Amino acid sequence: MEHLGALLLILTCVSRLHSTEGFPKCSIEQFVCNNGRCVHLNLRCDGVDDCGDSSDEISCFNCTSGSFHCVAAARCVSSRSICDGKPDCSDGADEQLDTCAQTCTRSQFRCTDGRCVPSSGRCDNIKDCEDGSDEENCDDNECEINNGGCSHLCIDLPLGFMCDCPSGMRLVQDTHCQDMDQCLDSDVCDQICVRTNGSLACECQDGYVLTAGTGECKATGVAARVVVSTHEGVKWMDLSGSEQRNITYKRASSGPVSALNANNTLYWIIPYSGIIYRMSLDSSDHRPAVLLKASTGILGLAVDWIRELLYWVSTSTHALHVASLNGSKQSELISGLSRPTAVAVQPLLGYVFWADSAVSPRIERASLDGTSRIALITSSIRYPVAISLDIPRGLLYWADSGLRIISRVAFDGQHRKTVVESNGYLDKPFGLAVFESRVYWSDQLTNSICSADKHNGNMLQVSQRLGSVSPAGLVILHPLLQPSGNDLLQSETRTPFPDSQFAWLLSLTVIISLLLVGAVLWRQRSELCAPRSLSPLGDETLKESQDPLLLSRLPVIHEHKDGTQNGSTH
Ligand SMILES: *[C@@H]1O[C@H](CO)[C@@H](O)[C@H](O)[C@H]1NC(C)=O
Ligand SMILES: *[C@@H]1O[C@H](CO)[C@@H](O)[C@H](O)[C@H]1NC(C)=O
Ligand SMILES: *[C@@H]1O[C@H](CO)[C@@H](O)[C@H](O)[C@H]1NC(C)=O
Ligand SMILES: *[C@@H]1O[C@H](CO)[C@@H](O)[C@H](O)[C@H]1NC(C)=O
Ligand SMILES: *[C@@H]1O[C@H](CO)[C@@H](O)[C@H](O)[C@H]1NC(C)=O
């Protein structure tokens, strides 16, 4: 340290020598600082260190620019530092002025002379401040400048202004209007929600049955299984957790896990080796096969069941990678991420989503070729660790282990909502999955597998306590979780669709028409799609949507889902 000090001293001396010699002489309108720099005379004694060595602020007797003369130090204190609660004069005189005596409360207005009067007296044509400052600036129309910062309507008030929205939209973050979506906002339906004459009715995708009297959709066919990776190998259990089996034995795999449901094949990672394994649950030979050697630090894994691709994110390469499900054609899709932790893919819409948890935590979306990148979530997010898609509803769920919450958002970044808040079982989440009406997660602090209502976090269930075994990745196995485009097209002819589903069905229909009829229809397609491009889905970052639960702790809208059948919900 001493050497360093001496060195710095020498360097300082050298540079000072250099600078006094090298600087041009100061002009007559300039003050010569002790360090040789020239500053304009106006800047002398204004309470701000313009020289860099404060020499323009010493020996001051006439302070300029409304700054305060600090007698004890023979220097000036800038006007902004007066009465700011921090003494800038050695004797604290800048905080002991008469005008500092009063700090006005929220319901008071601070007169220019520092006195406080009731806010109700502002702009009422009666002088309450001795200097009349409570009646000044009353006619300002804040809406004239930049529409007051409002996205839609700006209403000028006698005092201040407020933003408002046209009907059918609601105000978020006090300034921005967002389309209201009765179906998403009310959360009555697990899947398809149909608006008719101001009421809502629920329906389910093919393969699910609607539970009478509720909006719940139950999957038919084989029983779903929850697959969890642990440091003792991969295990599966049924949804309630009553039955549990080992899939692999004694092979550490405390990383993410994913599945190709159609082939009953699991994919997982041994994190420290960077090896991705594959195992078919159909074959009698339950030995995992090495699929490929990737990099270390892989925290997220996802299967594109349509194109048969595997996506993963790595904290050591800071990138999103993709390879064929047979292990060939590895490539880097998106690079330059900070600490990517999770990935999910919606191949029917052509979206890949990922979470980044360092520098500026966020959730982003891109096309499957890595273009059209959009940030969906950038605020009120601390440490996203897992993402999972609710494909029938077009929602992305994520777990934030920093905020200890599970939230969801539509694929366009709107309609954000927190559904599960810290409840003693959400302290160190790792894996996340959404199925039927519930959201499932693994928690590494309590070593448990939990689930709750996907709309509001109600009815928490701890389905498995794994004792000393720490669960990591989690995936639910059920063929309906990875629908083919055909299944969904069949349901289109049956029912009207909410906007988000309609959007991609429209695209699918269009693509098929193209194949059938040929390029002649291309122009028609542009016409068809044109109105949709008016939605805020551009290439630039979307405006943040507000999460009412996060910001104002509003009560969750509903607990029971009655009334959806007779359509009484508004
Ligand atoms: C301070 O200002 C007064 C009046 O403007 C002037 O007479 C006096 O010389 C100034 N003092 C200094 C130190 O600049
Ligand atoms: C919706 O309203 C229209 C006209 O107001 C009416 O004809 C129709 O029967 C209503 N449909 C339902 C399902 O109530
Ligand atoms: C699973 O494996 C662990 C150790 O690897 C063992 O203790 C446990 O009993 C096994 N469970 C079942 C259900 O076979
Ligand atoms: C999945 O199964 C289908 C049909 O048997 C087969 O064509 C395909 O190659 C399999 N995909 C993988 C990745 O094993
Ligand atoms: C892997 O799959 C790709 C298509 O996805 C195919 O072109 C390639 O031949 C396959 N490689 C092997 C070794 O099967």
Overall description:
- There is one protein chain.
- This protein is mainly beta.
- The protein folds into five domains: 2-101, Low-density Lipoprotein Receptor (Irregular), CATH 4.10.400.10; 108-179, Laminin; 222-481, TolB, C-terminal domain (Neuraminidase, 6 Propeller), CATH 2.120.10; 498-530; 532-570, no CATH class.
- A four-stranded antiparallel β-sheet has the order 17-16-15-38, with no helix packed on it.
- A hairpin with a 2-residue loop joins β15 (225-230) and β16.
- α3 crosses α4 (499-517).
- It starts with a helix and ends in an 18-residue tail after the last helix.
- The model is unreliable at 4-22, 489-500, 517-546 and 548-570 (pLDDT under 50).
- Bound molecules: 2-acetamido-2-deoxy-beta-D-glucopyranose (5 copies).
- One 2-acetamido-2-deoxy-beta-D-glucopyranose binds next to loops.
- Residues 232-233, 244-246, 249-250 line the site of one 2-acetamido-2-deoxy-beta-D-glucopyranose.
- Residues 139-178, 179-218 form the EGF-like calcium-binding domain.
- This is Very low-density lipoprotein receptor.
- Residues 142-178, 182-218 form the EGF-like domain.
Domains, number:
5
Residues in β-strands, percent? 25-35%
Gyration radius from CA atoms, angstroms: 31 Å
The CATH class of the largest domain is Mainly Beta
